[in-house]
Amino acid sequence: MEYLPRVVQALAGDDYTVYAYFSDGSVRRADIKPLIERGGVFARLSDEDFFSNRLTVMNDAVAWDVAGNHDEAACIDLDPWSMYETSECVADPLAEEAA
Predict the structure, then answer these.
(1) Measured between alpha carbons, how far is 74 from 65 in angstroms, rounded to an integer?
(2) Which of 30, 47, 69, 88 yields a CA-CA distance of 20 to 30 A from 76?
(3) Within a domain: residue 2?
(4) Which domain holds residue 64?
(5) What angle do CA 39, 45, 50 make, to 5 degrees?
(6) What is residue 99's predicted lDDT score, i.e. its pLDDT?
(7) How many domains, the chain?
(8) At CB < 8 A and 24+ separation, what contacts does 84-92 make?
(9) In Å, how far are 26, 71, 72, 94 from 44, measured between CA atoms?
(10) pLDDT of residue 4
(11) Phi-psi region of 39 (alpha: psi -120 to 50; beta: other; left: phi over 0)
(12) Would the pLDDT of 67 be above 60?
């Protein structure tokens, strides 16, 4: 059976990056700037406060809580499979801070 990635934790990084912690133990860093530049639904992510403070995990995916009430139907979320396949596998940034 093929691995179906699930995001278990998300952390905002510098310059519109996201660290996604996956259920297989990997940590992947994704650059979200190209999505923001597309505009549309992703335009809200250009607000640094919104980007950092509304970032969460919903539907087993990296998501931004649009309304602030954890409504899974009202969020901006990223496909976990696509994120897993296209993002860079990196060391855990939280482990680096603790060292």
Answers:
(1) 7
(2) 88
(3) no
(4) 7-98
(5) 155
(6) 58
(7) 1
(8) 84/5, 84/20, 84/22, 84/26, 84/28, 86/30, 87/20, 87/28, 87/29, 87/30, 88/28, 88/29, 88/30, 89/26, 89/27, 89/28, 90/19, 90/27, 90/28, 90/29, 91/27, 92/19, 92/21, 92/27
(9) 28, 17, 17, 26
(10) 85
(11) left
(12) yes
Q: Which residue has the tokens 């990084």?
A: 13
> pLDDT at position 97, please?
67
pLDDT (0 to 100) of residue 98? 63
Residue 1 lies in a domain: no
Residue 34 lies in a domain: yes
How much is the pLDDT for 2?
75
Tens-digit pLDDT profile for residues 7-65:
999 999 999 999 999 999 999 999 999 999 999 999 999 999 999 999 999 999 999 99
Residue 31 to residues 1, 3, 36, 67, 98, Cα–Cα distance (Å)? 29, 23, 10, 23, 24
